[in-house]
Amino acid sequence: MGPSYPIPPERTDWLPAAVHLYLDHTEAGQSLRELARRTGVHASTVMRQVRRYENRRDDPLMDSALTLYSAFYAKDTSMTLPLRMPADLATIEAEAHRVLRRLAEPGAVLAFTPGVEKAVVVRELADGKMAQLAVVAREVAEAFVLKDWIACRKQGRVSMYELTQEGRMHIRQQSGMAEAPAGFDWTGASLPRYGTMETPVAQMGRRRDKGGKPFLPAELVAAAERLREDFELAQMAPGTTQNWERFLDGGARSTNGGTSRGPAAARDRVAAALRDLGRGLGDVVLRVCCYLEGLEACEKRMGWAARSGKVVLRIGLERLRRHYAEMHGRGPMIG
At what angle do helices 165-174 and 89-103 cross, to 10 degrees? Predict the structure, then answer.
């Protein structure tokens, strides 16, 4: 049947079939037998699928997601249209490429508080402090749980979610690792370090040149991580939809007034670094370090020759390292 309200199909077509059945039954009022005839399965099969989602309403993120979509499927369309709009498929896939890879890191979890518009990927450090890895919009996190890419590990005022096997499989597919010999069991395989556990810069930091030296020295990797952490922290500002490219040509200026903490300060630090790098160097550093875009994709986007991106990236990171040394000394990496 589908949603009662007019809504762009790219915002509901990606929903799992079982979610459609659940909403058609609970909100649109279709009977289990009617849904069974429509899908060509037994009514008991539909009932099990419906009960599966009903039993998961204790999960705060799942409940938030089903509540959001319920309004669009409601039989009584006189009710008020929800203020929030579901995420579209393009956004979900783009954010999955960025966020799920951070969740694949050892000890990483997604933290969600009901009523808050963003969720945060964090990881506990050896000293007991929490390191922030990524920030994701609530609607995208809801899509992740509906697609079974993440699952609730601990419920509470702040609920914690972990990456599932389905989420790990999606990472492999996005990373071009879906092809495997017939009969290969992905579920029993450990995640390779390349493509899932690390950022593109961290991967290059492990690679060696012909002389056995790392292609990217540790101080360049640290500079890249410092920029990425500020970039992620800047996304926590309310309503952030920042066009970072506009800082590359000096067309935007800082507005924070010099304070050193919080999302606004992080935004100003990223803006200052991008302006210092300028076009070319800033483009590749922004895309690889912050957007976590692969070098090959970056080269194609920029129209560069193959393997030239590595050289430009190294020059950009060296300039970024000097920027931090000149402007910020050995200050805190984030906040």
Answer: 110
Q: What is the pLDDT of residues 190-230, one digit of tens each?
A: 333 333 345 788 878 888 777 778 888 889 988 998 898 88
d(CA 267, CA 291): 15
Answer whether 299's CB lies under 8 Å from 308's CB: yes
Indicate the pTM of the whole model.
0.56
Q: In what order do the strands lie in the sheet with 118-124?
A: 130-137, 118-124, 108-112, 159-163, 150-154
Alpha carbon separation from 301 to 270, 273, 287 (Å, rounded): 22, 22, 10
Query: What is the distance between the alpha carbons of residues 220 and 325, in angstroms, rounded to a whole number?
Result: 12
The C-alpha atoms of residue 168 and residue 196 are separated, in whole angstroms, by 9
Q: Give 53-98 pLDDT, tens digit per residue.
A: 888 889 999 999 998 888 777 655 555 555 678 888 888 988 898 8
Nearest in space to 133 (alpha carbons), one of 109, 167, 154: 109
Q: What is the chain's length?
A: 335
User: DSSP letters of 261-278?
Assistant: SHHHHHHHHHHHHHHHH-
- Best CATH choice for the domain 89-174 from the list 1.10.10, 2.60.40, 1.10.1660, 3.30.70: 1.10.10
